[in-house]
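ok here's Carboxynorspermidine/carboxyspermidine decarboxylase:
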Amino acid sequence: MERLYSVETPCYVVDEKRLIENLEILREIAERAGCKILLAQKAFSMFAVYPLIGRYLDGTTASGLFEARLGFEEMGKETHVFSAAYNEREFHEIVKICDHISFNSFAQWQKYKEKALAAGKSCGIRINPQHSTQEHGIYDPCAEGSRLGVTRANFKEELLEGMEGLHFHTLCEQNSDALIETLVAVEERFGDFLPQMKWVNFGGGHHITREDYDREALIDCIQQFKEKYDVQVYLEPGEAVALNAGYLVASVLDIVHNGIDIALLDASAACHMPDVIEMPYRPPLYQGGEPKEKPYTYRLAGATCLAGDVIGDYSFEQPLSIGDKLIFEDMAIYSMVKNNTFNGMCLPSIALLQENGEMKTIRQFGYGDFKERLS
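and the structure:
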């Protein structure tokens, strides 16, 4: 960890060694279960390490044209795409670069079917098994009124000609037990259509590389599903690829007091780790404790004008001083892909802590990156 204190802040640092450890687990799962695993770029799109990831995984999955292009150009293996609604202006390019195309509705399927099949693409429809396994409503595609996936009541068997796959994505940071019970719901509602499919995509949200994840149960359920329906199974984890493999290093700019000591950082929750506000959650901090667990408690916050730009309350063994560096953990995922330049905040640099211990700066940002997004 000491090597991280050498970077100029703010800076995302991805740990190559930890990334490889995750990838080795995922490759073993794929080999033992007989499935294919794709990188979900919506969680982690650091394409500087795509050649490395491509040595372990089968390709990438995208939520639209730009992500699809990134995976196609930088990894060059299987390229899958799902969009809630495709842009007609972009679809001609999608069919050029994507191997698998999943549709969110039968209306979309009918609109683009001819173009996709003429280009020789394998097409699927996203289904909604209407079985919630999580409490985060904002991330629950099975919530009432969800726009994602076709429910059984709206499923049109008569339009399946040319369709080769079913796709569902219902999980978020969950263990294999959530997948197992979801598969029961999938079979109950859509089991009649599974024997005519060539592939089924189990989506993402599988926290496979988490320490307590039951990988044996995952392997067993995939093997049983494959044997029962004779289909290729795909998984598309995002977080699991880079889980606990990255950091955001920040510096203390000032310390103020208003009922609690507040340390203002050059890293912002609103700009650089928006899931802290959106999820919400309290990111882990190296050598930081729960409030009042250690002698000195501070509220860590960004320097933007947003009153709610607060990362969380943490305690420390020693008082913080201006210029101190802090290391937020598990910051590879849903950080770089979601950050922004609100208030003219500079985007954090991106660095790679290489397996040999050397720190390599991948990208630095400046005023131009802020200005070029505006007009």
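+1. The chain has two domains: 2-13+246-331+339-371, 34-242.
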